[in-house]
Amino acid sequence: MLFKVQYIGKKRYIKLNGASYSTFLSQAKERFGIQDDKRMYLVDETGTEVDEDVFTDVLEEKSDIVWTLIDASSVEESSVQSSCTDTLSLSSFSSDSELSVLSPKRRRIDETTMMSPRRDQNDDTSLQAKELVEKLLQTKPGGEKILKEYRQTREVKDPLRRKLVNMVVSAMIEQYGTAPPMDVRTRYALGIVTLFPCLKDPYSEKGYEHFFDSKSNEGYIAWKLKNMQRELHGGRRRSSTSRDPSSNRGPQFGRPVTAEHQLEGDLCREAISLLRHSTDESQIFLKMEQTFKHRQELIQDSEKCETILGVFPRFLDTKGLVSPLWI
Length: 327
Hints:
Elements: E1 2-7, E2 10-15, H1 21-32, E3 40-43, E4 49-50, H2 52-61, E5 66-71, H3 72-75, H4 79-93, H5 96-139, H6 143-153, H7 158-176, H8 182-195, H9 220-242, H10 265-277, H11 281-290, H12 292-300, H13 308-311
Helix pairs in contact: 5-6, 5-8, 7-9, 7-10, 10-11
């Protein structure tokens, strides 16, 4: 019976009458000129070691197998040398196609390792933006309603979406004035779609451009800001044309205050935010007029009357406001 055996790159046939493990090893050593006392073992074509107990079974199943002789002493010298030896041994059987398969895998691993810091940085930015919007909704009136609605339905309908945009824009104006920085607008837009994934646009590059696109300065946030800026400009123009140039501003400047001129709800809060940042005197007088009713409510509330100067700090630096007409 003929057997194919290889050792250190050389292949030879061995002819045996029997098929015992010990006889096979002995004849193989003799065929390759290996000393009898040298410890050797066999592996099959898959690189799996085959010992004496299963040798006959493997032989019956794979009669045409190519056996490989391995020097046991060289393998046991050190774990590092063993790893290198196995790699070199396997590489001798590997084809060029196998190596070409391994290379892209290594490239993909390297690319993943190089990209992971940037991915982590993006994740941190999204998380910070999400926390910014979530904190805003938790602290502003009406914000909890939006969060509760989303938890129950997993969606944000148009009325709540408009209210969400109004709250975000009011918060930006309160902190930065009517022209908040572009990165602040982008951060709020990112935070909205991160907190509410149902509002994300799957067809846009980043998913939040419909709330704010820094390239075109468009989106819900940009449009709301522009509307408020138009209102500010229109209010200044109406104020300048309605006044008598020869009259004085302040207590001597008579101006009827009716219910239709008074702002309430979000509009009132936006006007108060504008007052904190505006330096335009005509706009200050206009917004003070439109919030007269709200100030009266604060003054008449014993618990809130002490906060009047904190809510309307223009009393401290604008001449003519400390008057019964404005208080």
